[in-house]
């Protein structure tokens, strides 16, 4: 019997050694697989960040006078829409939701005009006009935002007159800035 136990010990040790090599091979395989996956992932990110798709907008303008005139005319439409809608809102002719939709649309259109000016790459002689036009549109964007805050106060039934008056004063301030920068843009044309 002692001899048989010795044989079983040898056989058992042989299989245990085989299992440990099998398990070790499995661990090595997992480590190698994980390393390859990490390398592929890092490589993918490096390619993505090294060559991202360009989302920069480019506008080619050759006639800056007509381009500026077009911006002015399109902005008049946006301005009139916001002004008329705000007046109608104040006269209870349209709801808060209707006004806010109009104001959001006007804000988007104003931002589109801003972007168009910013990416038009105006030459030196048109720089002052374009910078003032951009400032004018930014002030008008602030005016729209304040009008939306005011409409929210009205819809929520805020009774505090001081807050409402502050918002209306801010709206008037932004409107005045808009007009001043607009006039500076007009006077700076070459």
Q: What can you tell me about this protein's structure?
A:
There is one protein chain. The protein is an all-alpha fold and 190 residues long. It folds into two domains: 1-53; 64-187, Four Helix Bundle (Hemerythrin (Met), subunit A) (Up-down Bundle). The protein has five helices and no strands. It has helices at 2-50, 64-90, 96-118, 124-155, 161-187. Helix 2 (64-90) packs antiparallel against helix 3 (96-118), helix 2 packs parallel to helix 4 (124-155) and helix 3 (96-118) runs antiparallel to helix 4 (124-155). The protein is flat, with a radius of gyration of 34 Å. The model has no long low-confidence stretch (mean pLDDT 81).
In short:
With 190 residues, this protein is an all-alpha fold. Helices cover 83% and strands 0% of the residues. It has helices at 2-50, 64-90, 96-118, 124-155, 161-187.
What kind of sheet is the major sheet? Answer: none
* Beta fraction: under 5%
- Percent range for helical residues? over 70%
CATH topology of the largest domain: Four Helix Bundle (Hemerythrin (Met), subunit A)
Annotated CATH architecture of the largest domain: Up-down Bundle
Helix count equals 5
How many individual domains? Answer: 2
The geometry reads as flat
For the record, what CATH class of the largest domain applies? Mainly Alpha
| H and E string | HHHHH
Low-confidence stretches: none
Number of strands: 0
The secondary structure category is: mainly alpha
